[in-house]
Design goal:
Blueprint lengths: L2 E5 L7 H14 L4 E5 L17 E3 L8 H11 L4 E5 L5 H11 L2 E6 L5 H8 L3 E9 L4 H7 L5 E6 L7 E2 H7 L3 E4 L7 E2 L1 E5 L6 H5 L5 E6 L3 H8 L5 E7 L6 H10 L3 E3 L4 H13 L6 H13 L3 H7 L6
Helix pairs in contact: 1-11, 2-3, 8-9
């Protein structure tokens, strides 16, 4: 069967999300695919079995052992469409693995990379290229510039793919739950700061979806306004270590909105958020659903099937 190696020349390029979305798509179309996790030793896998993906953990133990990794790919590709993520950013190593394992490469590129150079270097090993994290204002430019193979499509920049759950916010901020519930697994797409809100606070907190609100612990007016936002606010972070009044806790329980108490003030808490965003992982079922949708909407599946010799779809 087919073997696909997802590669890039840099970290955080989106290889894990692309590989996961492809596997999810194939399996949803009754084409059996599995993911070979090539992380080894004490390294944590980038792939999450909790997303429902079928993952085979590699048994080889040494980084850079092209021969053993190639053999592992060949063995696990029997009867499956095997998708692997390369741990190497070295193009020469990836080409060697591709040739020895009889695999095709799917290259995940950034918008500023030279597509012609990628095509020339990888040659016959290259099955296709997908551009990742493309800003909205550059969609048309991309489609005009790259209108033939090996370009397979692009993936738009999207908040879901850099989001974190309420519980991940709580841990990152060293927070303590005043009230927690199943809502702590919700993904947060926006952060709103409660301070001097000139309009009715309900309007302010209704302006964005999947919000975590940073509000001083002694502002029950803003806290209640956040909870009346029509379900947009998924959690409230209470700053300065000030516990909320009982009525706020009552309403939070009623609406199942987790309340997190932190020692830092609102400004200090807000400054901690960008670090959490930069650590975001592909670890939530909604991220997989969104990534699969984005890929299929902007990806040429027919050319993908031809390039990677997938004839069973």
């Amino acid at each position: 069967m087919s073997s696909i190696i997802v590669v890039s020349n840099k970290k955080k390029a989106g290889k894990t999300s692309v590989a996961s979305a492809l596997s999810n798509y194939l399996n949803s179309n009754n084409v059996k695919s599995v993911i070979l996790n090539t992380q080894n030793g004490n390294k944590k896998s980038n792939f999450s079995e909790e997303l429902g993906l079928e993952i085979i953990n590699s048994s080889f133990t040494e980084d850079g052992d092209v021969g053993k990794l190639s053999e592992e790919i060949i063995n696990n590709a029997k009867g499956n469409i095997l998708i692997s993520e390369s741990n190497s950013n070295d193009s020469k190593v990836n080409v060697e693995i591709s040739k020895k394992s009889n695999s095709k490469i799917l290259y995940v590129a950034s918008i500023n990379e030279d597509m012609d150079s990628i095509e020339k270097y990888y040659g016959e090993s290259l099955g296709g290229i997908v551009l990742n994290k493309i800003p909205r204002h550059r969609y048309e430019e991309i489609l005009k510039k790259y209108d033939s193979l090996p370009f397979l499509g692009y993936i738009p920049d999207n908040r879901y793919l850099v989001s974190n759950t309420v519980d991940q916010f709580a841990k990152h901020l060293d927070g303590e739950y005043v009230f927690d519930c199943d809502g702590k697994d919700n993904l947060i797409l926006n952060v709103l700061i409660g301070g001097i809100v000139l309009d009715w606070s309900v309007h302010y907190y209704s302006s964005k979806k999947n919000v975590i609100a940073l509000i001083r612990g002694d502002r029950p007016d803003l806290q209640l306004g956040a909870m009346q936002s029509g379900g947009n606010v998924k959690s409230i972070v209470l700053t300065k270590g000030i516990k909320p009044i009982e009525y706020v806790v009552y309403e939070a329980k009623k609406q199942e909105i987790p309340l997190i108490l932190v020692k830092t003030d609102t400004h200090e808490t807000a400054q901690l958020i960008p670090e959490l965003v930069s650590k975001s992982n592909f670890d939530h079922v909604l991220k997989l659903e969104k990534m699969t949708d984005l890929l299929l909407t902007n990806f040429d599946i027919n050319n993908f099937k031809k390039s990677f010799d997938i004839s069973t779809l």
